[in-house]
Structure prediction request, 406 residues.
Amino acid sequence: MSKKSIFVALFIILLQSGLMATQRSNKTVQKQISQNNIFSAKNIKPLMEKVFQWQINNPIDSNEEIDNRWARSTFYSGVMYAFHTTGDNSYLDQTIIWGKGWNWNRGSRYRHADDLVCGQAYLDVYSIKKDPIMLKGIKSAVDSLIAFPKTGREDWWWCDALFMAPPVLVRLGSLTNNEKYYNYLNKMYWDATDYLYSPADSLFFRDKSFFNAKTKNGRKVFWSRGNAWVLGGLTQMLDKMPKNEPSRLKYLTLYKKMIYKIAALQQPDGLWRASLLDPLQIPVKETSGSTFFAFAMAWGVNNGILPQKLFAPKIKKAWASIVKCIDEEGKLGYVQPIGAMPENVKADDNQEYATGAFLMAGSEMIKMSKEAQADNHKVVEKRTVEFKTDVKEDTTLKNITKLMIK
Prediction:
């Protein structure tokens, strides 16, 4: 046998050995995942910590830019949800480091809602530490907007804005006990909703450029992430809003109309596609929308707003699929990059805002776990009664899930 033949033979053996080792490694990972109960709090908590730490160690450099500050702020909104649920001080400590880095101030764009989203995490920390500097910057920024208001459709002209600013206003209203923040919120929110919301579809257009847009298959364009962020914002608002706030019922009604529609659009693999009404437009799973949908649905079940029998299977299916999008190191993939419409996504795509949404979803999954239900049986039972809804209304909304997408 010639030296060349020997070399080729050795190369083939090494290549096959490497492939076999990779296959064994992948099988080991899948075996570990299958052996762990991904719906158990004792497994959800370390998974959240792993994903959190990976993102801290692998920041997205472009999120340091002024126009992209909202992406990292959304991450820290999720970090604080994780802290409140787990009590792990590493989440709180990291948020404080980040907040200090910005001197607890908003972004530089005076009227832009994206530059207010940092207030979600700031005010969550303030509610614990009571350091006035954590409140001052955001409060003064919002006060200046209230003093010189514009309409909702002017300042919040894109649906993502309903995630950015409204939860900050609810926090301010609750922390200061000042009704002016709710008055401002209600005027802005419902004007923007009248502008962007499609009652016939129970979904939001991203902005006016999509009012008459159609996919190649002739269907309306409703962006998954845009609608997921509306729901993510609504869920935060309802979670932080006092139960006796007069405007609460109207927000709750919108939440329910949207969540039943979203449940009907879940794909067989448990996740949602970038274009909600045309999953074939971009037939790839996407996590920056799916994580917020899972968060919103799980919160609804945990608070007795949504029927567990109908939604729990959908939530578990979504969570199982989200977990599969996390690699061995803790990186969450299949995240659509920063954009403004349904676009393609790859397995390796990651962004900080999706990790924040994942931490929110994980926080609600912990509360859904059997351990949490056993520990808080009386609380869960009380919530179910508190949020009991009209039977006729629920029946009407449930029928939405039976609609076929035509």
Residues 259 and 297 are 7 Å apart (CA to CA). The chain has 18 helices and four strands. Residues 45-399 form a domain with the Glycosyltransferase fold (CATH 1.50.10.10). The two ends are 66 Å apart (CA to CA).
